[in-house]
């Protein structure tokens, strides 16, 4: 899945209100919002000169799809709100009552299915490039990288796979448990094992595109130049 607000052709707008955000990957995982009162806003020059989608008591949702046993979440966003729900730079959840999800919740990034779940604490920051690499081999684990630097890893013995039911960006439990206040520029979900090399290439691509290379650590292989392939 690939959402890219910098590509204006992927956003269906009424004025600046976003009713549809088209998946550029070709897999048809488009995010939509039919209710005008809950549509986020496209904001030009929102993140270092590029358009981003701004959320504030609104959200978009896609049809359920199976994430599989190995998956990486990569996204660029900026937080404009405060509180636990805005510690992760982009708020992702599922349809209310779903028991097998990957989501940002209460200041943590959580892979939650049947108890126990596994989660890593999020961080504050103005504009971040975030990566969460998930694996079910040999146990369920999440490795969290912020701006190209490893922050922490968590795991537990459970090996439940993760179908993302009613994927949602912008709210928890349709807003009943909270809203994300911030701007999201790009979201890439890789449904395969993500090696360190693959992760660093995606980080390099996103950092150079969104003007975040200064945030990458000194030893990052793509700090000076973007990947060529």
Overview of this protein structure:
By secondary structure, the chain is mainly β. It has one helix spanning 196-209; strands spanning 2-4, 11-14, 17-21, 31-32, 41-47, 50-55, 60-61, 65-66, 70-79, 92-93, 101-105, 108-112, 118-121, 127-135, 140-146, 149-156, 163-164, 168-169, 171-172, 178-179, 182-190. Strands 1, 5, 6, 9, 14, 15, 16 and 21 form an eight-stranded antiparallel β-sheet that branches.
Characterize this entry briefly:
By secondary structure, this protein is mainly β.
Low-confidence stretches: none
Helix content: under 10%
Element-level helix/strand string: EEEEEEEEEEEEEEEEEEEEEH
Q: Mind describing the biggest β-sheet?
A: 8 strands, antiparallel
What is the count of β-strands?
Answer: 21
Number of helices: 1
């Amino acid at each position: 899945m690939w959402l890219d607000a910098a590509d204006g052709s992927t956003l269906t707008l009424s004025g600046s209100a976003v009713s549809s955000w088209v998946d550029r990957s070709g897999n048809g995982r488009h995010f939509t919002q039919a209710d005008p009162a809950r549509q986020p806003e496209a904001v030009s020059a929102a993140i270092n000169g590029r358009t981003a989608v701004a959320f504030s008591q609104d959200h978009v949702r896609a049809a359920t799809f199976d994430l599989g046993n190995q998956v990486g979440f990569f996204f660029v966003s900026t937080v404009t709100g405060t509180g636990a729900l805005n510690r992760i730079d982009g708020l992702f959840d599922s349809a209310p009552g779903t028991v097998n999800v990957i989501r940002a919740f209460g200041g943590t990034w959580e892979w939650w299915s049947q108890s126990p779940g596994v989660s890593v604490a999020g961080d504050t920051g103005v504009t971040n490039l975030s990566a969460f690499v998930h694996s079910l081999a040999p146990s369920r684990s999440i490795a969290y990288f912020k701006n190209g630097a490893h922050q922490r890893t968590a795991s537990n013995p459970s090996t439940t796979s993760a179908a993302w039911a009613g994927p949602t960006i912008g709210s928890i439990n349709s807003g009943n448990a909270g809203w994300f206040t911030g701007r999201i520029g790009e979201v890439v979900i890789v449904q395969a094992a993500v090696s360190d090399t693959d992760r660093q290439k995606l980080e390099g691509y996103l950092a150079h595109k969104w003007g975040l290379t200064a945030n990458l650590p000194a030893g990052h292989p793509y700090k000076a130049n973007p990947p060529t392939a």
